[in-house]
Give the backbone structure.
Amino acid sequence: DIQMTQSPSSLSAFVGDRVTFTCRSSQTIYSYVNWYQQTPGKAPKLLIYESSKLQSGVPSRFSGSGSGTHFTLTIDSLQPEDFATYFCQQGYNTPRTFGQGTKLEI
Amino acid sequence: VQLQQSGPGLVKPSETLSLTCAISGDTVSSSSAAWHWIRQSPSRGLEWLGRTYFRSKWMDNYAASARGRITIIPDTSKNQFSLQLKDVTPDDTAVYYCARDRSFGFDFWGQGTLVTVSS
């Protein structure tokens, strides 16, 4: 199975900040990584697919990059609604696997 | 697209966990989609369980951790798919989600069902 490792596990920031999350895969997954946002009690929401493609309806302050084994998710100008937990997930093969998440706190 | 989950929130140890995901806005037999079950718990995080999809014939894949206990069944007459997980233990306690994948990530999710395994 491909292991997905996220860092940091938690991050504190202010409204208006720019933050970057990191995700590494245990083997190359080319650009087959997706990013999700989850708030308490809700299902994850797809933000970015195939490393850098913005899902429809997601604000442009979210962006993703990377290929191979190293990927990043960046949020420019944090908004209050962005404080949540973020997960990466590989879509290269089955079993699909997720990172453990990064909790973004105010 | 909407996915509506149904099923019991409490299952006894050694019994079978059964959940259903009703699809609206797409079809379970779509040749461009796959239909997944994923669960989430504090100890395991987000854990993919398996999927079903139709590509000239019905296909499925399951997580090794659940293989032998899990079945995902499509129902074209009701446009839904179901999860059956046999011989549950307290370790199977989790929030269970159904989700759609069109090769671009899990773009639609069910609302989640907390399933507790307890006598």
User: Anything to note?
Assistant: The two ends of chain B are 36 Å apart (CA to CA).
